[in-house]
Design brief:
heterodimer, A: alpha/beta, 9-stranded mixed β-sheet, 4-stranded mixed β-sheet, 13 strands, B: alpha/beta, 14 helices, 19 strands
């Protein structure tokens, strides 16, 4: 992760640690970074960014996070659950110093990677709560299909303000949308964000598409379901969905009208970055997700 | 998204309105000049990178140089590569280049205005720009009246028209009024966009956010809590080959009349009722009207002699190419200003601007009054300064607050420490350039960050009153060495009040 950021990096890692070791390491790394860069680094935090990253998502998570530190200086806490291992907590702490333009000073961001081994993975909230930056919002990014109702997720939902998923990572859309915990935290979905450019183009076809009763999408199931749910909820009636698989949304036909392609294709980092700029609930998404799962308007 | 639009189109709900202008043609007069190369085209490219220009768009360069479309595109490509803040992307550039045209022309020649009109009408047909026009006058002041007159004669009934005017807006009150009179013959005030690029800077806008979005500052933003305000606009560069302009303008017309007085107005203004153009500008005008003319003792002017800037030996102003060897043009101005209203009565605003100063920096310093009764021994607080809020406009946009903190260890010693908030660090490392914001706003018709004619006139009225006594005396120029903080008299201006310029 660090190499992608062109930042000065101080790192520390250890196995079988206590949280106090992590806090001490953070302080020590800040001092070292200040010594090796140019005076004390500024710490400008806008949030705590939690990410729950099961084994199969490690690489993708690190790629997406690369570059985010510059745009959203924050304390990033990456939780890697490893329930099959022996009980314990391993930590790796990085202090990243991004150079400021035209100046020798730096802005510091922090990344704490914690491997939750054995039963420690069952109580993640008790581990992250002491590490949250007080007074700032907590964003929880959950990689893969969230196990709604299970203990780790339920605990982390209690400490977060915003819950970010990517339903493209789920095997069971659209039914899974019914489980999103809209009443517990503001939910956002990176797949929903991906549809924004298409929604904008479809809105530009109004009123030509006001009477449609069918939508055809060539693209991933999540985006197709969300686009259909959105149209159902906005237009207030049933709209049948025809979906053909593709890695990205390639074509959308509303009724018989071909939607112009939006051209823009933001990177995963850009999409997550846009979600991190949002704070409140999104009633349009909530209605679209509900309509996607039950097939009704 | 307005309720009416949602009733019309329910699909728009939740989609933030994009700041994309309607289709239009941007015509740049003075397209062969430095401003077009360094600022305007790189800004257009940055907007294109972010999909902020309309799909149906054209940009026309117009100037006396006999270039072809391709030569213009080639030169602008070099400009974008050299001065753009984004990596060069072929696809983005190709899109912009395809929208670019060039028209060699001189308005002084008979019949050329008809040629321009015909050219633009054809472009409307070709690009679908609907008759919407943005005219950008990036030309020296003497060229403006004829262009304004000819453009006025060609006003079309189809589409909207906007006129962007670069500073200087006149050279005194009378000429500013004359320019306004000429413009208003053909253009309504809501069609005129006078650029003061300082207003497009993120930190200048952030000053409004700092003041009016935070409950903790506004209650203490007044004479009860603020001892004085200092504003510094310091440059390390000289006149960069612009002797012809600078000899006429000097520091007072180049910086003080526009950027400096805008910073004073934004610092001192009352909260506007909303963030619409007229509400903001109404409040700024009130500040300018409330400023009284400083007497000669409260104004210092200077001119740099030879010296060292960043280790390099540089010539004095009178040795610069094109400058008269006995020039009396000021390259430095400092003044003590007062805003005579309920909020600021008796609170001085010390301002200074100059060329070839020790450091390139624009900063607003709000110096608060001392704590009324610190319950510590004198020795404990001897290093403690009053609280100071610094708004860094450039080069490192941000805000610093100086507070007293206990020195770790035995006993009680208190020292001043700075808490820094660097704007680029909290959001994005790359802030948009001022010209990007201003060009986009002009295309969108949003005048909030542009100066209104009455603002310009108030600024000139103050400047005219300041310079009136200057004709009667000849200060001993040069009176400061390049690479210093200006003439000693500027320090005396502060020392007389028991104050000092801040060391930033």
């Amino acid at each position: 992760m660090a190499s992608a950021l062109s930042a000065h990096v101080e790192e520390w890692s250890a196995e079988d640690v206590e949280l106090v070791d992590v806090e001490l390491a953070l302080g020590r790394l800040r001092d070292q970074s200040a010594h090796e860069t140019w005076g004390p680094d500024l710490r400008t935090s806008v949030m705590t960014h939690l990410a729950w990253v099961p084994e199969e998502w490690h690489e993708a998570a690190l790629e997406t996070l690369a570059g985010l530190g510059e745009r959203h200086p924050s304390r990033g806490i990456l939780l890697f659950p490893d329930p099959a291992a022996e009980d314990g907590l391993d930590a790796s702490v990085s202090v990243l110093a991004f150079p400021l333009r035209e100046e020798r000073r730096h802005i510091a961001a922090e990344v704490i990677e914690l491997r939750l081994r054995g039963r420690r993975s069952e109580a993640p909230a008790s581990i992250v709560t002491p590490l949250l930056v007080s007074g700032l919002p907590v964003f929880l990014r959950w990689r893969g299909r969230p196990p709604f109702g299970e203990s780790p997720l339920e605990q982390l939902l209690d400490v977060c303000d915003r819950f970010i998923v990517d339903s493209r990572e789920w095997p069971d859309v659209p039914e899974a949308y019914a489980e999103l915990p809209f009443e517990r935290a503001a939910c956002s979905d990176i797949s929903w964000r991906r549809t924004e450019r298409w929604r904008r183009m479809l809105a530009g076809l109004w009123p030509e598409i006001a009477e449609i009763d069918e939508l055809s999408v060539t693209g991933p199931p999540a985006e197709a379901a969300l686009l259909a749910g959105w149209l159902r909820s906005r237009l207030g009636r049933a709209i049948a969905l025809q979906q053909e698989n593709a890695d990205e949304v390639e074509q959308v036909v509303a009724g018989t009208t071909l939607c112009p392609s939006p051209h823009e294709r933001p990177s995963p980092s850009d999409l997550l970055s846009e979600e991190l700029d949002e704070f409140g609930r999104d009633p349009v998404y909530e209605a679209a997700a509900r309509a996607a799962s039950d097939g009704r308007s | 998204v307005t309720e009416t639009r949602l009733v019309e189109n329910p699909l728009l709900e939740g989609l933030a309105p994009r700041r994309t202008p309607e289709p239009c043609v941007l015509v740049i007069f003075g397209a062969s000049g430095d401003l077009t190369r360094r600022k305007i085209f790189p800004a257009l490219y940055a907007l294109a990178c972010r999909h902020l220009l309309p799909e149906r768009f054209a940009v026309v360069g117009a100037s006396r140089s006999e270039w072809t479309d391709d030569e213009f595109r080639e030169r602008m490509e070099h400009a974008v590569r050299e001065f753009g803040r984004d990596d060069f992307k072929e696809d983005v550039w190709n899109w912009l280049a395809e929208a670019a045209r060039y028209l060699p022309m001189d308005f002084a020649d008979e019949g050329r205005e008809d040629e321009l009109a015909g050219f633009l009408n054809e472009l409307d047909e070709e690009r679908g720009t609907g008759g919407n026009r943005v005219y950008y006058l990036a030309v020296p002041p003497p060229a403006m009246p004829i262009i304004i007159k000819e453009l006025g004669k060609q006003r079309k009934t189809k589409g909207w028209t906007r006129l962007i005017v670069e500073k200087p807006f006149g050279h005194d009150l009378a000429s500013a009024r004359e320019l306004t009179r000429r413009i208003s013959r053909h253009f309504r005030e809501e069609e005129v966009f006078r650029i003061d690029h300082y207003l497009g800077k993120e930190t200048v806008q952030n000053l409004l956010a700092l003041r009016f979005a935070n409950g903790i500052f506004e209650p203490i933003w007044n004479r009860q809590f603020i001892d004085h305000v200092q504003i510094t606009v310091a440059e390390t560069i000289g006149i960069e080959g612009r002797a012809g302009y600078y000899e006429q303008a000097g520091a007072i017309r180049d910086i003080f009349q526009n950027h400096m007085l805008q910073l004073v107005a934004l610092t001192a203004m009352e909260p506007p009722i909303d963030f619409t153009a007229d509400s903001v500008r109404n409040e700024k005008v009130k500040v300018l009207k409330a400023m009284h003319t400083p007497g000669p003792k409260h104004v210092v002017r200077g001119q740099y002699g030879p010296g060292f800037v960043e280790g390099k030996e540089v010539p004095g102003y009178r040795e610069e190419e094109g400058v008269e060897p006995d020039s009396m043009t000021e390259t430095f101005v400092a003044a003590k200003l007062f805003v005579d209203n309920w909020r600021w009565a008796d609170t001085p605003f010390y301002v200074r601007t100059g060329k070839r100063l020790a450091r390139r920096e624009t900063v607003i310093g709000i110096q608060f009054k001392r704590a009324p009764h610190p319950p510590f021994e004198d020795a404990a607080t001897e290093e403690l300064q009053p609280n100071l809020l610094l708004v860094h406009v450039q080069p490192n946009e941000g805000v610093s607050l100086a507070v007293g903190a206990k020195v770790p260890g035995q006993g009680m010693r208190i020292r001043t420490v700075h808490m820094d908030f660097m704007y680029g660090g909290a959001f994005r490392t790359e802030l948009p350039e001022a010209y990007e914001r201003l060009l986009l706003d002009a295309m969108l018709g949003d005048q909030t960050l542009f100066t209104r004619s009455d603002e310009v006139e108030e600024q000139w009225a103050l400047v005219d009153a300041i310079v009136a006594p200057w004709a009667r005396d000849r200060p001993a120029f040069p009176n400061y060495a390049a690479g210093t903080w200006g003439p000693a008299a500027a320090d005396v201006l502060m020392h007389r009040d028991g104050r000092e310029w801040l060391r930033h």
